[in-house]
């Protein structure tokens, strides 16, 4: 019943009438079987995706990621999540229940349906320009509650916690490994705020633990216009959002970790200097990729496996561009 209510609301929103009443739900595109088989959206659905990104700063596209690949990656990343949670220097973002973790960068866990998804790159290259640069690959895991760490929400924030262009320059491709619901920590999104993420709207800057946090009075003003939502996102979906969009990780009230990957595609003109670090056994897959530019530092399989759970997190990454 709840899913039906959400779907009906999304259809009303997609019709163009609900937006005027501040509907908080994102546009969700369900590709045809032919589009899924070809891994390419029709021109009509592609237009809807681009319109949604310009208007809302976010779009959901269903049924484009292989479920078996998701299951296989989820199994290993859940194991890693517990290992990261128990580290003395756990890589949490804002609160201990919200862990940043990288996927294992070796061949057997590098599923093209996930990391080189052609529907995702079709949308990002149409929106940002040909061959966007993929320079960030990590994930966000909402951990089950414990007596010491009950479910908590991140502060509403933007990932663009630095002086940045006023026009679009980066898209985050989020891929949940299981269905996301309000119960297991679906991300809270504030649609349409991607143009309101300048430094004047933020309390903290890059380098501070709560960087990018949106000022409380602006949240209340925005809530009166268009409140936030925690959308239901089906397994097999991708969520593409403008890096500047206001959002907040939410607490997980279930018994199972909820892993969501985060890959950033930057516009080809944007001078971000970050590079990925992958095992050499992935090189042939990356070099075959024609839709993305992928700067990589190649390392041995042994080094990749020994280091990927000890990387930096949060503010150790710099999404700014060079002068």
TrEMBL record:
Signal peptide: none
InterPro entries linked to this entry: Fungal_Metabolite_Diox, Phytyl_CoA_dOase-like
Protein origin, superkingdom: Eukaryota
Alphabetized PANTHER family for the sequence: PHYTANOYL-COA DIOXYGENASE FAMILY PROTEIN (AFU_ORTHOLOGUE AFUA_2G03330)
Name recorded for this polypeptide: Phytanoyl-CoA dioxygenase
Organism of origin: Paecilomyces lecythidis
